[in-house]
Amino acid sequence: HKKCNMAAVFEKYDATKLAEYVAAAEAIALEASQLVVGAYEQPRETSEITDKTVASLDLVTQTDKACEKLIFGKLRAQFPSFELIGEESASDDGGYTVTDAPTWIVDPIDGTTNFIHRNPDVAISIGLAVDKQPIAGVIYDICRKEMFSAHKGSGATCNGKPISVSKSATSLPMSIIATNIGYGRDTAFIDWTCGNMRNLMSKTVRAVRMQGSACVACVAVAAGRQDCFFEVGPHPWDVCAGAIIVLEAGGYVCDVTGAAFDVSSRRYLLAASQQLASLVLECVAQPVPLT
């Protein structure tokens, strides 16, 4: 495998350019959020829902598609040479491939099931990857009106104010660990998920949380509101922006197997520190299933 020369990447994409990319993504996310807010304020029954799975678990609404269309249109206009990957277009096109080229990776509504049920954990995520490495990103938590932003070397912010991962989460009894169940309903996946909970609880973890949105969970780690998030099954649009925000907030990211972070692996762990990540990894059963 080719190693990414990050020094070369950041020589080409210097801090000034990266800041411009973040500012553009922030403005686009805010504009797209108005579509979500308008729909969110309508009765739940008005959501036009289709599903991507026979079990009707992985849902999409017309608002998801409208948001992605708006975001893609703005990004194409401002960055015509960049590639685009989005959750809804990837579903329509039958897949995606993250290349080394500069690529905007977009989740127009992360937490679609939450959105349909009018649960407030809903976010827009716009991340930028180069050589398959996240280098800039924004996540807008729509209901809380919180804009989380970062680019390589910038530190992370929420509504313009610096944020940091927790420094006190040095053990599981001191930590809130987040995960999501996802869409797997086969026996092996159920047993793996429940086994992880059993392992964490037997180590007297302080608490376990499930937001139903990987993006909301990632920024909660970055802001020190919880201490680790792990999940198997998300896609690059769920974590690209979140990973750079957590890293710039002083955190650590890796694969749920313990391997190096890979934006395309669909196995992600983001933590306040490598020390805490190691403690959580001891509780994650191996091998890791992938549905």
Keywords summarizing the entry:
291 residues, alpha+beta, 7-stranded mixed β-sheet, 37% helix, globular
Walk me through the structure.
The protein is globular, with a radius of gyration of 18 Å. It starts with 5 loop residues before the first helix and ends in a 10-residue tail after the last helix. With 291 residues, it is α+β, with helices and mostly antiparallel strands. Helix 2 packs antiparallel against helix 3. The protein has nine helices and 14 strands. The longest helix is centred in the first third of the chain and has 26 residues.
Task: Compose a concise summary of this entry.
The chain has about 290 residues and is α+β, with helices and mostly antiparallel strands.
